[in-house]
Amino acid sequence: MSRKKHSHSSPRPLQRLIEYTRNYRVQLWQAIAASILNKLFDLAPPVLIGIAVDVVVQKNDSVIAQFGIKDPFQQFILLSVATVIIWVLESVFEYLYAQLWRNLAQTIEHELRLDAYQHLQDLELAYFEERSTGGLMSLLSDDINQLERFLDIGANEVIHVITTIVIIGGIFFITAPDVAWMAMLPMPFILWGSVVFQRRLAPRYADVREKVGFLNSRLNNNLTGITTIKSFTAEAYETNRVREESEAYRQSNRKAIALSAAFVPLIRMIILAGFTALLFYGGISAFNGTMSAGSYSMLLFLIQRLLWPLTRLGETFDQYQRAMASTNRVMNLLDTPLAIHPGNMALDINKVQGEVFISNITFAYSGRAPVVKNLSLEIPAGKTIAIVGSTGSGKSTLVKLLLRLYEVENGKITLDGIDIKDLKLTDLRQCIGLVSQDVFLFHGTVIENIAYGNPTAKKANIIAAAKIAEAHEFIMQLPQGYDTIVGERGQKLSGGQRQRIAIARAVLKDPPILILDEATSAVDNETEAAIQRSLDRITVDRTTIAIAHRLSTIRNADCIYVMEYGEIVESGTHEELVNTEGIYASFWRVQSGLK
Description:
CATH topology of the largest domain: ABC transporter transmembrane region fold
Radius of gyration: 36 Å
Oligomer: single chain
Number of helices: 22
Shape: elongated
Number of strands: 10
InterPro entries: AAA+_ATPase, ABC1_TM_dom, ABC1_TM_sf, ABC_transporter-like_ATP-bd, ABC_transporter-like_CS, P-loop_NTPase, Type_1_exporter
CATH class of the largest domain: Mainly Alpha
CATH architecture of the largest domain: Up-down Bundle
Strand content: 5-15%
CATH superfamily of the largest domain: ABC transporter type 1, transmembrane domain
Subcellular location: Cell membrane
Structural class: alpha/beta
Pfam families: ABC_membrane (PF00664), ABC_tran (PF00005)
Strand order of the largest sheet: 6-7-8-3-9-10
Protein name: ABC transporter
Keywords: ATP-binding, Membrane, Nucleotide-binding, Transmembrane, Transmembrane helix, Transport
Helix content: 55-70%
């Protein structure tokens, strides 16, 4: 499991997030407007209470009386009607902002996950070899969900706090300018404290996101390798390793919690100072007659509505920091440049002849010595060539270079005379069918796995492909035939059955170029014979590249290349190579029992 840390990070993650949401600005402004209006009507009841107290104390001289309604009974009717309207409107806008924010959060989450996944798919194979599947899963699910949670709740909280400060601050300075400063006095300290907490929390939550990635990676590896764990009776050992990762995640969270939990109590003490000052000095003003009893009542209610919600800033900043740490990780993924150019030349698969030239190519995996060195070979259209050699000689690497899973460092590979770097990647790979020794079947039915390379294929064509691959007979013996679920990675099937489904998949794709990478290496002799019969049928008039350890499977190839240490050391037909007394001849003697 890789724990390599990346020094680059997305600058101003909130700004990046806002830029990302530019396509949803209408929904965003609708949600903001609904939040503001909801808070306006939410702040109205304390004002109504102040007016009601004013009516009780002042009677015919109350605030409402100044608008021509002198009778206290009529004043209370007006107040009651206003109260019903305000509460109904508050509820309406609460429904609207909840719906708008949640739907916006779901939409952005959906789009961001798709963009991140699509970009991930476009990255070169080396990117995945340096990172754990669990870590990438954590990014695509956990991190993006964290962002969705903030948009669901946190964004609305921030708007509510800002609206509260503006509205109540304005009311204070209009109603009681002499004591307004007392209510406003805690504000700079609260905001300053919030910024300080935010800066200190940021690295702690970045560490939390990293630790949960490690934990998910460990769990993913263990669930994938459960058979190995059981066979080596390593359950206790793996439980301890999961415990270590989970404990590291817990401790990382504990450090973040220790700081975030201190926010509310400290802010509460600052709020206490403002509330107490207004309670005392405002009370003295009301007692002396310089402030009405109604205004004093209203201000006491409003200062609580102003200051107490600020205690929730701690939770809001907590959500914000978690969301920004996650946004950073997602944006860093989206900023990862594509190492392999997608190409721009279209290729008509129906016109591909399948002539491949490999000219003086050299390739090395990152930080390692070259595994392919100045290699050249010719693959004529419609012919079958075979590549043999010791383990680690570079055979499978050659396949990856032909599929452009990696980019050659020097030299070039051409298809029908066109450099494959110039061809569109999708077109290039569409005209190549790969049957690998490591067959990957997706969780789903047999028919879905065969049709993977040609999803629109008719069932009759799928069955015909299965028959060519000699898979139809065993498929019909499965519980639901072609509709049988194969399990994750095809675990419900034997190795030979998986191999034949992979061959059927390649047959149905019907590519002009077929690559067989150790296609019979993990099966018994009977299954190998069946697979070989299938291969003999599907390689007719098709450019075929066969990589094999078992020389009996490729003895009829038009040309056989022998690779050693990344170079071609021998080439020729089976008979020619056996008679040269070279490396191939020694391989043949060992496998045929002559030595």
